[in-house]
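Service request form, structural biology core

Requester: graduate student, group of Dr. S.
Request type: structure prediction, single chain
Budget code: on file
Notes: please return the result as structure tokens.

Sequence provided:
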Amino acid sequence: MQVIDTEARIRKQIAENPVILYMKGTPEAPECGFSRAAVGALQKVGKPFAFVNVLQAPHIREKLPKVSQWPTFPQLFVNGELVGGCDIILGMEADGTLQPLLEQAGSEA
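Core staff response, request fulfilled:
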């Protein structure tokens, strides 16, 4: 029963938030270097984003990799789609594709 509830909660969070980052810690206090780097890239764009601290939500931390087919954290979702983890976020920041993606987030809904 818990697994179904957790998966439904994850899908609801992804559907309701145009930009959501599943991370270790919070944007103000990331608890791993990868989460810190991902938050830094998102904050440079300046568009607000939701987050879930997977360290405070062990059921989500356990279930999300099965839902997203992505094994590690952080995980960034934009408009309901998995973008990827830290390396992909930083790569998109470097090549200039992160900002336009985030700026149009939510406009397709």
